[in-house]
Target: Beta-xylanase
Amino acid sequence: KTLAAAARAGDGIMFGSAIQSALIDPDSDGDETYEQRAAAEFSLIAPENDLIWEVTEPTEPTREGGEWVHNYAWNRAEEVVDFADRNGQTIIGHHLVWHSSVPSWWPRMPGPDGKPIPNPEAYTPQVVREFLQDRVEDTVNRFEGRIGYWSVVNEVFAENGSWRPSIWQRAYPNPVPDSYGYIADSFRWAHAADANAKLYINEYGVEGNTAKARALYDLVKRLRNDNVPIHGVGFQTHRKLTDGLTGFADMLRRFADLGVEVYITEMDVRIHDTATSGVELLQQAEVYGRAVRACLDVAACKFINLWGFTDAHSWIGTVFHIGWGRATVLTNTLAAKPAYNRIAAELAGW
Ligand code: G3I
Model:
């Protein structure tokens, strides 16, 4: 009995997880139990970090005969895609365009808080557009027919619903730097590269009725009105216990009414490292359960994806939220936590 089987037995949605290429690498010291579990448990896989721009294009393109020559590194992504193919799993590609994965060769400048940020003026607007187009087209093209769903643009809004500053805005003045143009173009280029892939916009903090959720809604409506090929909206669903998830199904339905599919794309629920038993684990199960229920309640909700499936390998506790590293559904030794059982129960009544 697996989560994928439970999902199939219930409403027939797909159920997946992000996985890390280093742990399924047959040539290095991969982790066999991790690999076997990832293969068996899920019908959907997301390469956690292997498709982001800084990973796939580690060196600056060069110019030859009026064209950019890119030095791509597809090896990590290929490993995960091959893995999923071998196991008959659908793949979701995270993310084509994301402010947080600009390669290190792009020149930096001091940001508002003094920390380095990519300099939007490092290249001319035309070059910025060419880099963006190549990034989107070449990546989708490379995996045409193999990656079924793409997170085309990720996290384009700040919390208050304004555009998040990025290197692409200056290439799309309206008349001041603006995000709409690069977002619409990215969807069009992705669609031209693989007409069968489903394309979605991805965001966090939009599960409830927040300013960001309202801005996202207006954007999706505008894209649909302009016939931009957008097929879905991804709700990352990184949550903590105190958030609750009130109104999530309503939010999913509201977006679905615009004619798009909706997905849970990166779910985890952080609790304290010390919470190895007892009440927090049950509360965590409750939040997972509510999210699954919300998806099942909305016909347009087609998959649920976890952002890591074991506490042994989760971005929470290492990259961020130190001290909160028990956010996933399996323990360090891959034993089911209450959240796992609760999800299976919601999906299939097991
Ligand atoms: O692989 C290197 C390793 O060689 C090195 O020793 C180590 C030291 O810092 O870093 C390792 O890379 C880290 C990588 O995760 C793999 O663990 C990066 O520093 C770290 O920045 C990276 O974090 C990822 C983060 O996105 C930023 O790219 C997380 O794993 C990943 O889970 C997270 O995922 C994002 C989604 O894409 C978008 N939504 C939010 C979500 C969480 O931030």
Q: What stands out?
A: The chain has one domain: 3-348. The CA atoms of residues 206 and 213 lie 4 Å apart.
